[in-house]
Amino acid sequence: MLPSSMHVLRVSMFFAAVPLFAAPQDSAGNLKPKDVREIAKEGSAAMPRLRALLKNPVLEIRIEAVKAIVQTGTQHSIDPLIEATLDADAEIQIRATDGLVNFYQPGYVQSGLSASFRRAGTKIISRFSDTNDAVVPPYIQARPEVVGALGKLVRGGAGQEVRANAARAVGVLRGASAMPDLLEGLRSKDTDLIYETLVALQKIRDPKVAGNVVFLLRDLDPKVQIAAIETTGILRNKDALPDLAGVLNRTRNAKVRRAALTAIAMLPDTKNRDIYARYLQDKDEGMRGAAAEGYGRLGEKSDVPALRTAFEEERKDSPRLSLAFALVMLGDEKLSEESPLQYLVNTLNSSARKGEAFPLLEELARKPAVRAAIYPALPQGTKDEKIQLAQILARSGAADSSAPLESLTHDANSEVVQEAVRALQALKARI
Description:
By secondary structure, the protein is mainly α. It has helices at 4-17, 33-40, 47-53, 59-72, 78-84, 90-104, 108-111, 144-156, 160-172, 179-186, 191-204, 222-234, 241-250, 254-265, 273-279, 285-298, 304-313, 317-329, 340-346, 354-364, 368-377, 383-396, 402-408, 414-430; strands at residues 118-120, 123-125. The N and C termini lie far apart (82 Å). Residues 1-26 have low confidence and may be disordered.
């Protein structure tokens, strides 16, 4: 047996050595980025320590902390990410923004701006994805503090990339309360910020702000100009019809011309009839399609014979879809072999054209007679038809859509069941 004095000495030496192998401490001087990643392995339990690191004076530590908080992704991440939006560094603000959206739209960080992030010295290099169609369903409401934090970044983030990214985020979350901040973004000189703001306005769909877009209809950047034209149509700003007609008549850009006619077609007015007549036989298939949709929304049954002839003779899929839409709008609402409505539904199976058929059916499904025609055929549809028609009914259906969607929740295909459940939630939230 060891003498008592030697025993005490060895025990003291053992405890003195422990800190050398203990978990990393959070002191500013000793912490390394890899230590933050190690802390993050504790999951939600590490959130208090990670949040405290957002105040660390070392930029690399704060970046690792916000990345870890985003990765944790629980409801306990929201307040720390809101706090991170107040950081002075652009990367941290962008990562916090994407993380906040990711909580409500899982998977967003894989496609958001932070996914393409890299630094070259002090310069931030990133690229917005070309696709900007993400939006949360109606039954999901972001916390007011989240939308408020994003709105502040739209107005005054640490760089134009931050502001544009925040504008995109507000759109994804349908953050209507940040509208004043978005309207401030429209006055920017930065193309990305203006564009992302316009798309956000399209997603929020508040017609009261449509007049704020008119000055951009003649913007010198085609990307911004087209987005402004599309926004004007989506927000149903009939007061802008003279401006849209002016753009249509003067532009030499084919994409701008198509966008202008498409927007005019979304704003039905008998004064537009001459415009539709001018382009229904145009050599540009996009112009033919837009003119056909305009005729459909005018609602004049006398136009049916000419549209039916055009439908039967048209060989291009895109304008033929528009002609089918027009015929259904004008009363041909039966769902049968070779019918215009059946043609639209069948196109939901086409990877190349379903993106065109979907919004047309979404608009048509607001008509009770169209929904009544679709319901009996729904159980016999293909998987793609069932999934997309469920999404359409979630957006455009009414109380009568609940039973057909409920029946889809018992479908043999699990993907159909999942989409039907989500559609029911969205429908109930909307009506």
